[in-house]
Design a protein that fits this description.
seven-stranded mixed β-sheet
Length: 249
């Protein structure tokens, strides 16, 4: 699914100077890499001992966007396949190329992303909670972007807040999520009433609360989709929240 020659991608890796060789490091996997803002935020937060000394793995997407694209296939598919691709191909490559050891403890593993990269981050943890317990999303595409359609999840990522989270036992996932008040709305793309990003994120926050998840929801005023100013302002506190409780802190 992700191995076709046209879909090669670059992987950027941040290894903090505080990393001790041979130890199993916590890490965060990010979509749509490289994410230099993430690397800068971690540099400061780790130095201030506000988050653990983690490795950051920023993976480029397979190109394109939305239905019919490789990026859409990777990020919007409601399954564990993308997480499995990362686990079997990306993480071993990072360990070998960067001479680091990555933890197997799901408490020390996080995912993050924006838009479809954000929904991908939660999908990774939802289908593989034995691998990931921490999630951070900006303008998460918790809408019906999945293509091709899947009868088991006909609403794509909309099904996360429509059916899956409300009707499943709570999973050990801690999540920080944001949406802007001027985020995306496309009522005509499929005429399915499942393409309002603001509503989708509000619904997500509500069902997370109802199921007792540890979550923080930021509603950013005068902000658009994947708003750069919002990310620059909030990423440090978002990372602190997502990593709260790690190592007993």
């Amino acid at each position: 699914m992700f191995r076709e020659p046209p879909y090669k991608r670059k992987v950027a890796v941040y290894v903090p100077k505080q990393y001790e060789a041979g130890t199993a490091a916590p890490f965060i996997v990010g979509a749509d890499g490289p994410d230099n803002l993430l690397f800068l935020a971690l540099d400061n937060l780790i130095a201030e001992k506000k988050v653990p000394a983690m490795v950051a793995i920023s993976i480029g997407n397979g190109s394109g966007d939305a239905q019919g694209s490789q990026r859409g296939l990777e990020y919007d598919t409601m399954s564990g396949k993308y997480a499995e691709f990362v686990e079997s191909e990306v993480l071993p490559l990072v360990e070998k190329s960067c001479n680091v050891k990555l933890t197997k403890d799901p408490e020390g593993r996080a995912t993050m992303g924006c838009s479809s990269g954000g929904s991908c981050a939660l999908i990774m943890a939802w289908y593989h909670p034995e691998w990931y317990h921490r999630v951070l999303t900006y303008s998460g595409t918790y809408v019906n972007q999945q293509w091709p359609s899947n009868p088991q999840t006909p609403g794509g990522a909309w099904d996360l807040h429509e059916n899956l989270i409300p009707n499943s036992p709570a999973k050990p996932i801690r999540i920080w999520l944001e949406v802007g008040d001027k985020d995306l709305l496309n009522p005509n793309i499929m005429r399915d009433n499942m393409h309002d990003w603001v509503l989708a994120n509000e619904r997500m926050a509500r069902v997370l609360a109802e199921k007792g998840y540890h979550y923080q929801f930021v509603f950013a005023k005068n902000a658009g989709h994947c708003d750069g100013g919002v990310k620059q302002q909030t990423l440090p506190e978002a990372l602190e929240y997502v990593w709260k409780g790690y190592g007993g802190k």
